[in-house]
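Section 4.2 – Deliverable D4.2 (structural model, holo form)

The reporting period included a commitment to supply a predicted holo structure for the target in complex with D-ribose. Inputs used:
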Amino acid sequence: MKIAIASDHGGFRLKAYIIEYLKKSGIEYKDFGAYDESSCDYPDYAEPVAKAVVAKEYDFGILICGTGIGIGIAANKIPGVRAALCHDTFSAHATREHNDANILTMGERIVGPGLAIDIVDTFLRTKFEGDRHKRRIDKITELEKNIVNNEWGKTK
Ligand code: RB5
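Output (structure tokens):
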């Protein structure tokens, strides 16, 4: 399994903690920055991870900012991304099972490191259930296609 991980300054310390966990667990990863705690802009870190995950260069992305919200909003602008904000393990497995989420987002200012690791672990090992959930994901993909093709007004 290969993971693309990034944060802004607000998520820098939690990212470092998660990277230690990935190393210990023998999980391959690439750190897309930020590389220090200087103030920076979360879209700059969401974009390369989101594009690499959509290109299937990585199995999953992990994005962290202060809240997990801004970096997730930015990532979800890239067609094919299903970034899910999870601060509990129920959300982490539910979003994999039902939404086939491909990026996990968290907020360093919200979740402690111990819980964050449990969330990462749950997210990475839970499989998508497919079936009726696949039909719903396909509809999301269809929405994205309409937007990309500039067919905003398209209705059924
Ligand atoms: C940075 O101060 C903070 O706004 C950012 O990390 C994030 O929480 C935005 O959603």
